[in-house]
Specification:
This protein has a single domain (about 10-265), classed as BirA Bifunctional Protein, domain 2. The chain is an alpha/beta fold. Helix content is about 30%, strand content about 25%. It has seven helices and 13 strands. Strands 1, 2, 6, 7, 8, 9, 10, 11, 12 and 13 form a ten-stranded mixed beta sheet that branches. Helix 3 packs across helix 5 (about 230-245). Residues about 265-274 have low confidence and may be disordered.
């Protein structure tokens, strides 16, 4: 058992594989209510999304550069969502982590929670030889890499736009969260081998002056696939190191049961006909 704010609790990790955004969002909302009611333990969903552009609470429609008809014809969905932030893209090759955690009573601090999510992505990137850093400005919030020095983050640990002095940075990981009665949903997305050309359809996170990158584009070798056993184990270890408590990877049967129990009945029957 690791020491931390979740001492005495057990984190269960479910790998959903590749999943559509609408189905996953419905599952998150149901699990959030279940966590509030104490029906489920702290739960971490690991997944890849089918190609989708999502709009957060502060999103500007103008940041979607391609017509919706064009996106649909290229297999890219568009969804509005309740997370913080602006417009972003999710797709295959991206590790998406959605913690459904009750932060009460020991971690009722949104900034600290977001900082922990950033630390986890930074640790994962470091495991593949990439030096990433956290930028704290609201307009640049996320995990970034200096493309002139991808193996080492040469800036302050908690950098600001001012401290970067026009450095050639590119975004490696995005964070967007929502809390209800201190129970979390949404989370982070780390670009591993994402199709970066899809980001040309949007202005990611309303940041027109900096690009987006991935571990693959940065030359990281021996990358684990987003849904692989080794990466799931690394993610679980990183979460336990910061949150404490015990944790385990759910079996495929447990995850199938979770999805069937907490999916919206109509939606689940449509997506998984008998």
């Amino acid at each position: 058992m690791s020491a931390g704010p979740f001492n005495g609790r057990t984190l269960v990790v479910h790998r959903l594989g590749r999943i559509g955004y609408a189905e996953c969002h419905a599952l998150q909302e149901a699990l959030l209510e279940a966590r509030q009611a104490g029906e489920v333990p702290d739960t971490l969903l690991l997944l890849e999304h089918e190609p989708v552009v999502t709009l957060g609470r502060s999103a500007k429609e103008a940041n979607i550069l391609a017509p919706r008809e064009f996106l649909a014809s290229h297999g890219v969905d568009v969804h509005e969502t309740g997370r913080g932030g602006d417009v972003t893209y999710h797709g295959p090759g991206q590790l998406v982590a959605y913690p459904i955690f009750d932060l009460k009573p020991t971690l009722e601090d949104v900034r600290k929670y977001v900082r922990i999510l950033a630390e986890i992505m930074i640790e994962l990137a470091a495991g593949y030889g990439i030096g990433a850093g956290y930028v704290t400005d609201k307009t640049l919030l996320g995990v970034w890499v200096d493309t002139a020095s991808p193996g080492r983050w040469p800036h302050p640990a908690d950098a600001t736009a001012e401290s970067l002095h026009g450095a050639p940075i590119a975004k490696l990981g995005a964070i967007g969260v929502r809390l209800s009665r201190w129970v979390t949903m949404h989370g982070f997305a780390l670009n591993i081998s994402t199709n970066l050309s899809h980001f040309q359809y949007i202005i990611p996170c309303n940041i027109p002056d900096h690009g987006v990158t991935s571990l693959e584009a940065l030359g990281a070798e021996d990358r684990d696939a987003p849904m692989s056993d080794p990466l799931a184990a690394k993610v679980l270890a990183a979460f336990l190191a910061r949150f404490g408590g015990d944790g385990r990877l759910a079996s495929a049967a447990e995850t199938a049961s979770l999805r069937q129990t907490y999916a919206a009945p109509k939606q689940y029957s449509e997506l998984h006909p008998a």
